[in-house]
Amino acid sequence: MYRPYHPPADPRIVRELTQMQQEMRAHVRLLPLGHEPTLIAGCDSSFPTPETILSVFVLLRFPSLEVVEKVYHVGPVEVPYIPGLLSFREAPNVLKAYEKLRQKPDVIMVDGHGIAHPRRMGIAAHLGLLLDVPTFGVAKQKLTGVYQEPAITKGSISPLTEKSGELLGEVIRSKDKVLPLFVSPGHRCDQATATRLTLACLRGYKLPEPTRLADHWAEEFKKELR
Question: Which residues are annotated as a binding site?
């Protein structure tokens, strides 16, 4: 995937943020949901300009996936682009978007990784800790780990593991013959729940509805900024 050039980050900032991730990691809890969700949110962020970030939440009823509300927030980018530390760049603006929801979700599906991250602190885990809300990540590309390609039919699954064998997530074919998704728990959610909810939210597209609609509305909201 193409990424624009970013100058190297200040090593001191990298060390400080990496240390913060290590400390946050100790507080992540992978647990089944206490009850079946009635509201599920999709969350996505994009960068309309190099200096601004737009974060979107779309709230849906579960299991019907009827849209209940959609909100966004635009703010300045305050942290440089640093691979493996993108959650610090996105999370502050995401939290401001979340505050605009009139109703709060039982679980959040985040466009990105949960624990399938070199330090087990992808954006879904990061947000889950900050909000103390169950979260999991659905990403389009692998960040870390190894896996065997799942079968080409929708619903096929293979484990995403560290070389040591530690389970990081599951690789899910969400539609026949399309590239798979990488699903991992974030916080207050476990792998079985993350996988089940991802599959339950598929409606014929590659992406499950919560993150598909968050991505769609991010594009729509960008038009309001022009």
Answer: 44, 111
Whole-angstrom distance, CA of residue 140 vs CA of residue 134: 20
* CA gap 174, 126 in Å, rounded: 25
Q: Binding site for Mg(2+): residue ranges? A: 44, 111
Instruction: Decide: 114 and 136 in contact? Cβ < 8 Å.
Output: yes
The residue type found at 137 is: G
Cα–Cα separations (whole angstroms), residue 150 to 4, 89, 142, 143, 171: 31, 32, 14, 17, 7
pTM of the predicted model, to two decimals? 0.94
CA dihedral 6, 11, 12, 13 (to 10 degrees): 30
Tokens 């499950």, residue? 208
3-state DSSP assignment of residue 153: coil
* SS3 call for 87: helix
Q: Report pLDDT digits (tens) over 46-77.
A: 999 989 999 999 999 999 999 999 999 999 99
End-to-end CA separation in angstroms for the chain = 26
Q: Which residues of 210-220 are buried (b: 16+ CB within 10 A; e: fewer)?
A: bbbbbbbbbee
**Surface-to-core class of residue 90, CB atoms within 10 Å of its CB (0-12 exposed, 13-18 middle, 19+ buried):** buried
- Per-residue pLDDT tens digits for 81-115: 888 999 999 999 999 999 999 999 999 999 999 99
CB 221 within 8 A of CB 50: no
Helix (H, G, I), strand (E, B) or coil at 177: coil
